[in-house]
Amino acid sequence: MKKSPTSPADNVVALYQEHARAFERQRSRDLFERGWLTRFLALLPASGKPRVLDIGCGNGVPIDRHLIEQGCEIMGVDTSLPLLAGAQAAFPDHRWIAADMRRMPLNETFHGLIAWHSLFHLRPEDQRPLFATFARLAAPGAPLMFTSGTTLGEAIGELEGQPLYHGSLDRQEYRDLLEANGFEVVRYVEWDEECGRANVWLARRGGAVEGETRQPRITAVPGEISRG
Length: 228
Known about the structure:
The chain is built from 8 helices and 10 strands. By secondary structure, the protein is of the alpha/beta class.
């Protein structure tokens, strides 16, 4: 079936271009993601400046700001030029690239990858191939953290009175895609009350990390699902 050019799924990029300032006003500066970021940081190399790829970085606040404060080197990817301009102005020593996550022009690997509240703006059929991209960009042992829905389908939110698209796979398909692409699920929590009721995945690429991690390895419990 031919996709309608007026589908909300086709308008996400334009919405974040047009309403970047409104999004910045609405985006909480409170770091309610701190607990998850602490878990993510614990899996990064302890020495040097770990390279972290933030896919859908926005203006870099508050997540990238926190990672930078913790000694990370950030590469942020987003489609919103106004949001990227804010990130570049605030954090000029880090890299900010205008690109669609489905077509990222990157030929390097990273010690960690984050797609926080960004992957779910893609149609389900566009999300699936991204897991091979995650695997290509993740260094051995690198953590991958992202948010998602829990069941296959679509939902429409709102940004400044205009429809904002969200898509999701089923939780088991996410787990299968991670495993098929060489990631181990470290932790998965549904409707985390301490994190804005987000559904959060923390996984880890197979292979040995460069040197020691910041904290002892977090052991995954096979099949474990926590509910906030």
